[in-house]
Amino acid sequence: MSDTVIRIAETTAEILALYNPIIGTINLIVREVRDIYKNAESNKEICLIMYNRVDSAEHAMNTLMRNIEGSEDEEIFENFRKKEYYLAFERFKNLLTNIKEYTNKVSKFDRYKQIINATEVKNKYQKLTKEYDVCIKDLQFTMIMSSEAARVKEAKKVDKAIENTEEALKKLDNTDQKLDMIAKNIDFLIKERSLDTQVKKIDPSELYEPPYKDTNFRKNVFKKIYKGEHDEHEVACKPIDSQNLGTQLTILKKLKSKYILQFYGLSYADTSEVMVSEWAEKGTLKELYHKHDIPWTRKIQIIRDICRGIVFLRRVNIFHHDLRCENVFLSLI
User: Fold this and answer.
1) Taking all residues of the chain, what is their mean pLDDT, rounded to a whole number?
2) What residues does the Protein kinase domain cover (predicted)?
3) What is d(CA 25, CA 32) in angstroms, rounded to the nearest whole number?
4) Within 13 Å of residue 122, how many CA atoms lie on the same side as its CB?
């Protein structure tokens, strides 16, 4: 039987020269899978399972290679001299490439939707994990071979992750449809240009003074109570000349997001034309910084909400062009 074994290397130097390129590629793939897991938007649990598997295999592989260097134990070298073992390493490298591609695809909502359905996601996961177990056995990485109980536990986590992602995608699909409609309306409005009549006109009688007047003014902006169709709102009234703002105001009326101040329409107050929009009780971000010591946890939330507002605008093909602390408004500290 030993006569049929094809030997491809003899000395330690030959072995290292032969295997190091493959090992370098495997180490790179593992780092890429780790980064994919860290930045995953969806199926975080599946990405973690895949990362744990490739990370464990990398650790076993690197430990094995360290044992070769400087060792005089012939048994350690024997497998590395065989062509079959080298080919098993090649298969392992190709498998990790497939795992990386799969993990990358399921980690992002837009890429996940390119996979036909949840069944395909699970089938691909099962195929990759079976191939992984075979490779681990062929390479004799026995210290990381998983038990049947561990595999069952992982499978349940995968099912739960797929279920959560499917639910999230349903919500995203509804949101995408709404955003696509907003974007189409805005594109149409920009092309048409004749927009002044499309801005809602609010009767001045629908605006009245709030009961407390101590914080009702902010530079040239003043607070009113707007009696809307369904309930009352605290609104900011800012004097403007709307003649040259038809396009911007009409577009602003189309934007519906909790991260964008809502624009209600145009009205008159004290003989001045005003734009009526949502009142931000705490003022601008710049004012807030001067008045309060903002904890880091709140700063992170503010940054997150600013980013969400920017993403919303970008999804409907709008660029802000003047993003600064004076233009970021807050209702809560």
Assistant:
1) 79
2) 138-333
3) 11
4) 15
State residue 48's pLDDT score.
Answer: 92
Overall average pLDDT of the 307-313 stretch: 83
Q: What is the DSSP string of 84-104?
A: HHHHHHHHHHHHHHHHHHHHH
- Rounded CA-CA distance 54/136 in Å is 10
Question: Could you report the per-residue pLDDT of 185-223, keeping only the tens digit for each?
Answer: 655 555 555 444 468 889 988 988 887 766 667 778 888
Cα torsion 269, 275, 273, 185: sign: negative
pLDDT category at 2 given cuts 50, 70, 90 is very low
Q: How many CA atoms lie within 13 A of 257 on its CB side?
A: 21
Same domain, 145 and 205: no
pLDDT for the residue 25: 94
Q: Give the other-Cβ count within 10 Å of 199's Cβ.
A: 20
Distance of CA 48 to the CA centre of its chain: 16
- pLDDT reported for residue 181: 61
The alpha carbon dihedral of 125, 128, 134, 139 has a sign of: negative
Do 12 and 139 share a domain, yes or no? yes
Q: Is 37 part of any domain?
A: yes
Residues 266 and 292 in one domain: no
Same domain, 72 and 143: yes
DSSP state of 331: S
Pair (21, 150) in one structural domain: yes
- Please report the pLDDT score of residue 12 as a whole number: 75
3-state secondary structure at position 44? helix
